[in-house]
Design goal:
Protein name: LAQU0S17e02036g1_1
Shape: globular
Strand content: under 5%
GO cellular component, one term: plasma membrane
Order of helices and strands: HHHHHHHHHHH
Number of domains: 1
Largest sheet: none
Number of helices: 11
Radius of gyration: 22 Å
Function: Fluoride channel required for the rapid expulsion of cytoplasmic fluoride.
Distance between the termini: 72 Å
Structural class: mainly alpha
Catalytic activity: fluoride(in) = fluoride(out)
Family: Belongs to the fluoride channel Fluc/FEX (TC 1.A.43) family.
């Protein structure tokens, strides 16, 4: 009897060990690609913010476009078998989810609607009702660009991936095998470099007290945001059919945090001075907004989930995500902006 119990316990221990190993490898992949994705987003925001730009920056629009395109492309490649499940999670949840940012989109929409954006000092609306036009401009452009880029990435890869398809029980084509080998190599490289890259970011953020902290501080906070989003999606998304509760919770929570960090970083005291006078504290607040909140919230996953849902469920999901998040921003950031100023 005792030997039978031991035999029954062995497979259970094995399953636990395998589970820990898989979660550990997933965490390493998310660590590397969240840092890479965060750098990509901040780089695109900086790159597209220049004098005379057609789309006046700073804006997260280009980052959301790129992330949604890559998300669509990855979804189209998934059936071809070129991704391992682990690397697919790393690319979609880790990289694409970190490049795009729902919370930045929400704050951007609030700033334009209330004429409190970084570039609002040089102009004012004919009257306050024009804030509605700005609200709709940011909302529709961001959503339509994100959805269209996702569909374009999906269709483009499907159009040109015919040579990767495996018919019936035939072996995987040579092209698909080559791509899979390259992606497997990238997966191994990411696993090896994940922790060293994080250590480098921490050291650089601690040693160099200059403008580089805009990048390094945010990179340090990016992984916790991505990991929290992954955990929320894993455990909450299956709870409600046709409503990804985990992604919804991550987006709303991240938006609330970004509103608080923005208030602290830009808010004014009663005498007109800044609430936060310490440069280092302000750098940390900006990094928490760009790194933690930017990686905790995602447009690419939101759009991809909406693409797979029935239309009515998609509309409900989008409306709930945007309405709840924006209302909370108005309560947190708006109430302070209209009484003290930001």
């Amino acid at each position: 009897m005792e030997s039978k119990e031991k035999l029954d316990a062995e497979p259970h221990k094995t399953r636990i060990g395998v589970g820990f190993r898989v979660e550990g490898e997933t965490a390493l992949q998310l660590l590397f690609f969240s840092i890479l994705g965060n750098y990509s987003r901040l780089g695109l925001v900086r790159l597209t913010d220049y004098e005379g730009s057609y789309l006046q920056g700073p804006t997260v629009l280009w980052a959301n476009l790129a992330a949604c395109f890559m998300m669509g492309a990855a979804q189209a490649l998934k059936p071809q078998g070129v991704f391992t499940p682990l690397f697919f999670t790393a690319v979609t949840t880790g990289y694409c989810g970190s490049v795009s940012s729902f919370s930045s989109f929400m704050v951007e929409m609030f700033e334009h609607a209330t004429n409190t954006s970084a570039n609002s000092g040089s102009h004012s609306f004919p009257n306050r009702a024009y804030g509605i036009m700005e609200f709709l401009s940011v909302l529709l452009v961001q959503l339509m660009v994100s959805m269209c880029s996702h569909i374009f990435g999906l269709c483009l890869v499907r159009e040109f991936s015919g040579s990767l398809e495996t018919a019936g029980g035939r072996e995987m084509p040579n092209n698909a095998r080559k791509i899979r080998k390259v992606l497997k190599l990238a997966e191994n490289v990411a696993r090896i470099l994940a922790v060293p890259v994080l250590i480098v970011q921490i050291v650089l953020a601690a040693v160099y007290n200059n403008n580089s902290r805009y990048w390094t501080f945010a990179a340090v906070f990016s992984f916790p945001g991505t990991l929290l989003r992954y955990v929320l999606a894993k455990y909450l998304n299956p709870q409600v059919q046709h409503f990804p509760l985990g992604t919804f919770a991550a987006n709303v929570f991240g938006t609330v945090l970004l509103a608080v960090f923005t208030l602290l970083a830009r808010g004014k005291a009663a005498d007109g001075s800044r609430l936060i006078k310490s440069t280092t504290t302000n750098d940390v607040l900006v990094a928490l907004g760009n790194g933690f909140c930017g990686c905790l919230t995602t447009i690419s996953t939101l759009v991809n989930e909406g693409h797979t849902l029935p239309l009515r469920k998609t509309l409900l999901y989008y409306f709930a995500s945007i309405a709840v998040s924006f209302c909370l921003i108005v309560v947190i950031l708006g109430s302070y902006a209209w009484t003290r100023g930001i």
